[in-house]
Amino acid sequence: MIQTQLLPLRPPYQIIAACGYVGLQVATLIVTEETRDETGSYGITTHSHPVVNYACK
Description:
mainly beta, 4-stranded antiparallel sheet, 4 strands
């Protein structure tokens, strides 16, 4: 099973630069995934991803 959670951030926002673009990190997406190894043992893996707004004016 995969679960996600969006964690909104408050100003001041982190500035993100990538591929020639500059944006503001306005949230973090947290992804949690249940895993099992070869022996059937249960585990949890988490990943976090920045949510970036590139359309700031």
